[in-house]
Amino acid sequence: MTNPWALYQRHPAFVLGFHGTEKVTVETVVSSKTTHLKKSEGKFEWLGHGVYFWENDPQRGLEWAQSGNAKKKIEQPAVVGAIIDLGHCLDLTTRIGLDEVKEAYSTVRDAYAAADLVLPANTGGKDHFKRELDCQVIQALHLYRKDKGLPSYDTIRAPFLEDEELYEGAGFRQRNHIQIAVIDTNCIKGYFHPILK
Fold this sequence. Notes:
Strands 4-7-8-2-1-3-9 form a 7-stranded mixed β-sheet. Helix 3 packs across helix 4. It has 4 helices and 9 strands. The N and C termini lie far apart (51 Å). The protein has helices spanning 23-30, 58-67, 95-114, 132-147; strands at 14-22, 51-55, 77-85, 89-91, 122-123, 130-131, 155-160, 177-182, 188-192. It has 2 domains: 12-87 and 180-192, no CATH class; 89-155, no CATH class. It is of the alpha+beta class. The model has no long low-confidence stretch (mean pLDDT 91).
């Protein structure tokens, strides 16, 4: 059955994304010596496998590169901007996206139970920096769509509440952000040096 809400899974405008990485990598992709940034394909990726960006936040991209959170130490932290067409987007700010991920979780949970295996967990403190469960759920969602002949997602977009309260009693956190994982690199229309002041 076709989902009547599916037509709202396309975003009609480009977004800017920012990726923290080594300075040499920034120079390589901006100069087109390398076509695209490398996809993250580890088991703890928050939104599954893809090229990751902070939406509209170059400062956060640079902070991430400087923070030591990368899989290996970044010697010369820098940030690169990208012009992204979200295309067919699994947007986790919408009910249709959240409902689909919830359904994928049920499938993963049932498969683990049937195999008498322990379901992986998100770990790594209160912000769950190591998201093995979420990664598996998103990857399972992609496989399910492929097996059913449904159109694949080009990108995934999700908000994250992170870190301490912005002020006492706040509903905002110090590191709230929207993250984008680009699955189909054809959605990246170009790279650029952001203006940082």
